[in-house]
Amino acid sequence: MPAFLREAKGFGTIEMGLFASLPLWGGALGGLCGGFVNDFLIRVTGNRRLARSLTAIVGKSIAAVLIVTSLMADDGRMIMVVLFCCKFFSDWTQPTWWGTVTDLGGPAAGRVFGFVNLFGAIAGFAAGPIMSYIKADFGFDVLFYFVGVVYILTAICWGFVDCTKRLVVVEEPHSDE
Q1: H or E segment at 138?
Q2: Which tens digit of pLDDT belongs to each residue from 32-68?
Q3: For the chain, which has fewer Cβ within 10 Å, the N-terminal or C-terminal residue?
């Protein structure tokens, strides 16, 4: 984000520092609000799978629209407000993700979290060079479209997640008494 603000929008150091943090604030608030949305939908629908999937699909879909919409604005400040909202909806899925992993893992949730975090770390490691390549060869606009596509693919994947099916079954130890 700092490179985008400096290179594409001509922000100075202080202005860049202030506005670059907006998406982080959006993500923090989104996570808080998303937890309430997720819990509310579980109570209203009585369907944990629907509530979790709907929260995630809606959040990632709105984020995809917003990141592409940000390309239509010329003013860097307005773009950062849109990206604040983008990150809000993208990250409102975090509590849903945590709840889903807990549902899937049950008593072995720690193992499932470890497995998911392993693949998240691998993806995070790969994302830097991939996104750097896209930005260097195609520019910021294509990079923003790429992130939008990732959001859409994530939303689609959430349609297949069934948090009501345990991945790990932990058997209770048998006593010989």
Answers
A1: helix 109-138
A2: 999 999 999 999 999 999 999 999 999 999 999 999 9
A3: C
